[in-house]
Amino acid sequence: GLDRGAKGQISTFSSFISAVSPKKEAAENRSSPAHLVFPNIKNVREQPPICLDVRQKQRTSMDASSSEMKAPVLPEPILPIQPKTVKDFQEDVEKVKSSGDWKAVHDFYLTTFDSFPELNAAFKKDATASFNTIEDSGINGKFVNAVYDTLLNTPQDVQKTVLKGIINSLLREWKGPRTKDDLRAYFILLQNPQFNNTSTYVIYAHLLRQIATLVEADHHFLVHWFKKLSQKRFKQLVERLLQFISLRLFPAKPEEFPPITKCSWWIPSAAKVLALLNTANNLVHPPLIPYTDFYNSTLDHIDLMEEYHTWQNFGNSHRFSFCQYPFVISVAAKKIIIQRDSEQQMINIARQSLVDKVSRRQRPDMNILFLNMKVRRTHLVSDSLDELTRKRADLKKKLKVTFVGEAGLDMGGLTKEWFLLLIRQIFHPDYGMFTYHKDSHCHWFSSFKCDNYSEFRLVGILMGLAVYNSITLDIRFPPCCYKKLLSPPIIPSDQNIPVGICNVTVDDLCQIMPELAHGLSELLSHEGNVEEDFYSTFQVFQEEFGIIKSYNLKPGGDKISVTNQNRKEYVQLYTDFLLNKSIYKQFAAFYYGFHSVCASNALMLLRPEEVEILVCGSPDLDMHALQRSTQYDGYAKTDLTIKYFWDVVLGFPLDLQKKLLHFTTGSDRVPVGGMADLNFKISKNETSTNCLPVAHTCFNQLCLPPYKSKKDLKQKLIIGISNSEGFGLE
């Protein structure tokens, strides 16, 4: 790390420069400010706050297909002579190992980081070329990596020299329009690993602000250069920015930083640069890093509802909220926002209802706080549909279920049983609403026409209720279903606007019908004569109740042959027909059902993948976490049977672990909050050890006889979880 000043901190450029003494050697011919006076944060002119409000569609959007930006191109300055080649630099570093003399290396760093032109002279692949395209930054990335990797192993005076040079560069270059060489310099400086150290954060913050306040055309170039970085270097940039935000919010040593009131722009600037990196990541297929790597878990510990209300109420102002940058908010935090937003809406409604009752001198009914469902097991779907239709104003209330003719209070078990039974019945192949595709292990909407689509609305309501009542549903829709569910994320005020329609590709179709998608891909890549070899027209055929029906993909499609020239259009129209048009009414009912429960601006914070996790849970199992959170009834965790159990389960392959989870909870996925949210319990079953384990799915409970040997326990457990029928309801 850097040596600190007398007070052990570097709070501003001024205090930092006092810790970095000017170097006279090798600097006599360098241009520098007439006097080394660096502004305190309060003296730096305020930049306009960064706003990337998702409701205003102000996300950084980049045209991935454009190779040139139509922006005025400023003339590039004549660069200094390139000081060293990569080979020269590496030879100088090797010499240090034998001589111990860092002078040549020190001089290189002193020269290179003194100004933006010098940075370009050192790292530009060809100092005479302009490199004004988004596809090529013109930077010798290997040289940049070598210089930075070496920097961390140099003496402190060399590292201080680099930071001083960066200060000079930022002060000299922070005003006026940017050339592409300036953008290259920012691109290089942002990769400096010294910014992992909190003592450099003041400099880092100023670098981030200058990048954040660039014009959109400049951001466009940076985004496309970011996406060309290696996965390792890209991830380092993201982690560095996330750490910067976390330590500014919760500093380990508050005295290291200026007061938050004097640097309120730090976090907005970092968030804007993160937004550029997020955009770059989304332009690459597959992404450089998972979208979850942008999550900042520190934000789980701030006042999320204050952030949400700031975003809601001051969306058009310059007030910053993390909700403007939802990609940094974890799905667990988003779930909290959605649930609390719904609770607040229901509290307001209940409060008004109570006031109305009292004003009319009527006795308040505490049932107004709940969505009370009374259903018959023999008429489960029809009763549920009737109840939910009658009580559509109560859908956001806490759900309580009563089965007619059965005693007992719903403490959560009856609600879960209602969900499990209803989903099992609706998704049964004989019911005809959904088709199960074995190749992709998922359900898709049946395209059969019907007079009433209300049962599709019921499925949408169920999914919404599951989100609000923390129930993990055992249903498998393909990813494009959730993309359609957020198209748009808020129900449009104009009912003529179509809903549940999104751009789909062969990749989306492959997630449902891989064999058909493969055939379409072969059509696209076919090198022969498509018209003669495939003999297809712009027409598709579907079987409905034993009758083959034909549909034109475009007007007169039955008379238009598919050719080499129009095959892309054919594949696009075919895919759109299968995933959008042929099931429009079914999906629209499903869409409106879901949004009748989840009608919240908070949905705009979600990615399609996150909606799936909220509804169905995460597929990532951590059985050690389940072991740590398991409760016991009749057993102690030190009992031999329990030790046998965990030895066996932790040694299971993934498919058996999933079967165990499905057997005991009704789903092979994990809730958003992790294994701990399952409240998994193992109870002692005093029956014969010849009996198989029993699961009470509605309570996530496994009843385990006290088997005498690990072998016997393993054998009985595998038989039990492999041959369980349906949902294992008990």
Automatic annotation (TrEMBL):
Alphabetical list of SUPFAM superfamilies matching this protein: Hect, E3 ligase catalytic domain
BP terms from Gene Ontology? protein polyubiquitination
Which GO terms of the molecular function aspect are on file?
A: ubiquitin protein ligase activity
Question: Known catalysed reaction(s)?
Answer: S-ubiquitinyl-[E2 ubiquitin-conjugating enzyme]-L-cysteine + [acceptor protein]-L-lysine = [E2 ubiquitin-conjugating enzyme]-L-cysteine + N(6)-ubiquitinyl-[acceptor protein]-L-lysine
Q: Note one Pfam family from the annotation.
A: HECT
Q: What InterPro entries does UniProt report for this protein, alphabetically?
A: E3A/B/C-like (IPR044611), HECT_dom (IPR000569), Hect_E3_ubiquitin_ligase (IPR035983)
**Per the UniProt record, which residue ranges are transmembrane?**
none
- Residue numbers annotated as active site: 698
> Could you tell me the keywords of this UniProt record?
Phosphoprotein, Transferase, Ubl conjugation pathway
Residues covered by the HECT domain: 391-730
Enzyme nomenclature, EC number: 2.3.2.26
Q: Quote the pathway field.
A: Protein modification; protein ubiquitination
Biological role? E3 ubiquitin-protein ligase which accepts ubiquitin from an E2 ubiquitin-conjugating enzyme in the form of a thioester and then directly transfers the ubiquitin to targeted substrates.
**Name of the protein in its database record:** Probable E3 ubiquitin-protein ligase HECTD2
Query: Organism source for this protein?
Result: Pan paniscus
- What lineage is on file? Eukaryota, Metazoa, Chordata, Craniata, Vertebrata
